[in-house]
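Friendly challenge for the regulars: who can give me the structure tokens for this chain first? No prize, just bragging rights.
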Amino acid sequence: MSGPLRFYGDGLPYLPYREVKGCLIAIEGTDGVGRSTQVDLLKRWLQVNGYGVVETGWTRSKLVQRALDMAKAGNLLNRMTFSLLYAADFADRLENVILPALRSGFVVLSDRYVHTAFARDHVRGADSRWIRDLFGFAPIPDLACYLKIDLDHLIPRVLESGGMNYWESGMDLRMGEDIFDSFKNYQGALLGEYDRLAREFGFEVVDAARPIGEIQRDLQERIAKVLPIRPPAATVHPVPAPTTA
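First reply, four minutes later:
Bragging rights claimed.
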């Protein structure tokens, strides 16, 4: 797809271009749902079909990543400062990765997008209007797919892939007596917020409780509706899942 960029707010006023040739696709979902595996498969599929693909993901900015890792390791910052760091991470990737790729005609696959901040910060007690305004420079994606899962399917996946960590369990919020209870309460709240955002923003909702290949085929069919590409005709053969989702 090509055409004028649309933003959740005012965009980045110092960037002169608003027209792009590429397509922005966001894959959203909670921790451990399998986003990274699906993004990797989609990248390969799109490349086989002749598309140049640029992949990006939450907290992958070289400018901010080290600061975020250090802050998490020491639990040093308050929630608002963390939100500002996440916004700086996204702004850096937007200016230096996402927008140049879109202007050059690439498909940009984003493993998480700003809706992650909307969901997490709301659950963590931040003012939702402030968060929306903070990320108002974000372009609206051409397609946002939400990998939807319930706790009964999510918990075994997380346990099999390495267990529950401090931040994914919301331990800083003291949401349970132990890490397991905190994970259930925190992720349950996140899933409820993602469901609400899916209705608000019109996400394409994909059942993520199924096998990897079925999820991938579903995603490919939805992408084929926004890109000039033939939908998949055969079963997808998944690659081994990475250690993180």
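Residues 57 and 111 are 4 Å apart (CA to CA). The helical segments are 35-48, 65-74, 79-103, 114-123, 128-134, 151-160, 179-201, 212-223. Your move, everyone else.
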